[in-house]
Amino acid sequence: MVKVHIVGAGPGDVDLITVKGLRCIETADIILYDRLINKELLTYAKRGAKLIFCGKLPNRHAMIQEQINRALVNYAQQGLNVIRLKGGDPFVFGRGAEEAEVLAQHNIPFEIVPGITSGIAAPAYAGIPVTHRDLSSSFAMVTGHMQEGKDDSIQWESLAKGIDTIAIYMGVGNLPYIRQQLLKYGREEKTPVALIQWGTFAQQKTVTGTLANIEEVVKKENIQNPSIIVVGEVVTLREKIQWLENVKPEPLIEEISV
After folding, report:
1. Residue 56 catalytic?
2. Per-residue pLDDT for 205 more than 70?
3. Which of 108, 127, 163, 183 has the CA that lies 20 to 30 A from 61?
4. Alpha helix locations (H) across 85-227?
């Protein structure tokens, strides 16, 4: 039986996928891919490879997770070379571990191919380091998308008081609550905040503000998901070291029909 590869596609820029991840794409018989991968990566698939869209939007899923799990098992049991291609890193808010668990339960060999996660890459493309000798010696990645019907398990007091830089995934819709919790537990209103939409893609857009006014900034600039929220003094470095805006943009790649 061949091995299933659960591959991190990186944050968006097609050049940020790992060499190993690209080799997996090139040799796959089946590629089950997510919504936020750069579709240009699919052009590296071999002729005849089956490409299956597994994207998820709020309240609208092309495939529910259980269907994805079954597909991975079924195709692997047919002896096909299966790739599960996920945005960013499969183990950072990507449900890759859940898929690996299912494969293990069915005694199907698998391998995890890490990818660059957007919580680091998007700020870097915006000129914001997540750590800095003078400004930040600690960094946390947090989900901003709370599961329905479950209590908020995030340790907001620890984040607010103990972490210098916070990268929050999928948090635009919950920004008022996130802001409220950070302020409630001691973060100052003047704390710098950035939102990076479509990080590392050609259409990346970055806005900055503070905990005092970031809601108004986001509303005015119409920032939507997918976006990373960065909270911390490192945001101030963007004024000095932003670089992407100085690079001549390449034409946007239209979504590939597969």
Report:
1. yes
2. yes
3. 108
4. 96-105, 118-125, 156-162, 175-184, 214-221
